Amino acid sequence: MDNAEKIHRLFDRFERPSFKAPNRFVRSATWICGADDDTGEISAAEIQKHAEIAAGGAGTLITGLAFISPEGKSLRREWGLHNDGRISDVSRLSDEVHKYGSNLIVQICHGGGQREASVAEGNFSFSPSGGPHPTCSFDTTPLSKKDIRKIAEDFAAAALRAKKGGADGVEIHGGHGFLLTQFFSPSINKRDDEYGGPLENRSRIFYEILEEVRTSVGDNFNIWFKISIAEGTENGYGADDGIKLAASLLKRGADGINVSSGTSYAGAMNYPSILGVSAGESEAPFAEYARELKTCASENQIIILTGGLRSLPVMAELIDSGTCDLLAMSRPFIAEPDLINRWREEDSRPTACISCNACFKTAKDNKLIDCPILRDRNEGNWDPL
Ligand SMILES: Cc1cc2nc3c(=O)[nH]c(=O)nc-3n(C[C@H](O)[C@H](O)[C@H](O)COP(=O)(O)O)c2cc1C
Predict the structure, then answer these.
(1) Reduced to 3 states, what is the DSSP secondary structure of residue 55?
(2) Against a cut of 0.85, is the pTM above it?
(3) Protein residues whose CB sits closer than 6 Å to any atom of ligand 1
(4) In this predicted model, what pLDDT tens digit does every residue of 284-300 receive, in sequence order?
(5) pLDDT at 48
(6) What distance in angstroms lies between residue 294's CA and the mean position of ligand 1's atoms?
């Protein structure tokens, strides 16, 4: 097959018994700082952002992280799926996204000790064994076994809300330094019971959550996990352990693994939103992890690759070589919500995103996440690339 044909096939329908999508492109979970801080209600502006990306051709959208309980909230204006009042948010979102034929996967998360100071202020913050999170200055309370049980139940309840609202699945956030990473990290988790110590113990909460969520949503609803395959720190867990964790989740019935890597505290070079990715040169830094994991997946399980995907030839090769099944991007869609249509219809050059992470800074004054490139486009000043 020549390169043009390989690229063409990225836009073909993707079909597996448990998951069908109009193409291979996925919007990776992206917090856009748009929800109501008191109620966790999603805003019309946030729904509009998702609609633009679906209208722009992405076959599947993963929402920004949604907290499963008030104590699991991490970020300002983070969306909440912590009570039944929020089911209607999922309905509004899925109605919009489905209108364009795209899928909606809801990302659910517990932040543990990883919280912005303004969110933590005046509240208890929890973590596997207490102490401050590497990125935070406040103290945390160690979780009891009863608390851990409740967390699994909260994930299950949030997943059921996603299902009731019409989503096509959930993605459980198991990476980037949030609570589940804190359990898996040997440098953070100092427990001496069955949730700490050897790898099997540090993985236990993932297994319990999977089991509880599956019981709650049944067999015909997608459960994906996003995993940081390596923690990215000197004393943290390495890729061998991350692969073992992800492979065990597949063995225990997860429908998909979204391969990411690094954590919020691993420094610029091991941050999940890698700085300065260069199209064709430094793309897809986590591809090797996906390739290894693909050998552990059954035909019906899906490996999604996220992180530094920027150009069609690289992505076509990843699919052609069987490295992964779906291709997820975050920052490129902040810059260009209509990226997939642009690629399909007119201009196949790499995304205009330069991976500068300026988008993170735009949320500073509680504004919706934005991109200087997108602003230029909106003002008619955009000279593509
Ligand atoms: C503004 C912003 C918000 C993000 N929010 C989330 C999130 O809510 N959940 C998540 O798993 N990852 C989140 N990420 C990380 C991305 O999903 C992705 O893993 C990372 O940026 C690498 O992909 P990219 O190179 O295509 O941007 C966020 C990234 C950015 C830039």
Answers:
(1) helix
(2) yes
(3) 28-31, 64-65, 107, 173, 176, 226, 260, 272-274, 306-309, 329-332, 359-360, 369
(4) 999 999 999 999 999 99
(5) 97
(6) 22
Q: Tell me which residue has its CA closest to atom 1 in ligand 1.
A: 360
Residue 362: inside a domain: yes
Model confidence over 183-237: pLDDT tens digits? 999 999 999 999 999 999 999 999 999 999 999 999 999 999 999 999 999 999 9
Whether 115 is in a domain gets the answer yes
Q: What is the DSSP annotation of 215-246?
A: HHH-SSSEEEEEEESS--STTS--HHHHHHHH
* Structural domain harbouring 84: 3-378
Smallest CA-to-CA distance from 362 within 339, 335, 385 is with 335
**Atom 10 in ligand 1: which residue has the minimum CA distance?**
29
Contacts of 224 (CB under 8 A, 6+ apart): 105, 169, 170, 171, 172, 254, 255, 256, 257, 258, 302, 304
Digit-coded pLDDT (tens) for 296-314: 999 999 999 999 999 999 9
Distance of CA 329 from the midpoint of ligand 1 (Å): 8
Total of domains in the chain: 1
In total, the chain counts a number of residues equal to 385
**Domain-located, residue 383:** no
CA–CA dist 173, 180 (Å, integer): 8
Instruction: Give the number of the atom of ligand 1 that is nearest the alpha carbon of residue 332.
Output: 26
Tokens of 222: 């997608």
Q: How far is the centre of ligand 1, averaged over its atoms, from the C-alpha of 197 (Å)?
A: 29
288 alpha carbon – ligand 1 mean position (Å):
19
Nearest residue (CA) to ligand 1, atom 23: 307
Residue 384 placed within a domain: no
Strand partners, 259: 227, 305
Instruction: Look up residue 96 and give its two tokens.
Output: 């919009």
- Residues 6 or more apart whose CB falls under 8 angstroms from that of 146 comprise none
CATH code at position 304: 3.20.20.70
Residue 39 is which amino acid?
T
Q: Which of 76, 65, 245, 59 is nearest to 155 (CA)?
A: 65
Q: How far is the CA of 28 from the centre of ligand 1 (A)?
A: 6
Distance between CA atoms of 327 and 262, rounded to whole angstroms?
A: 18
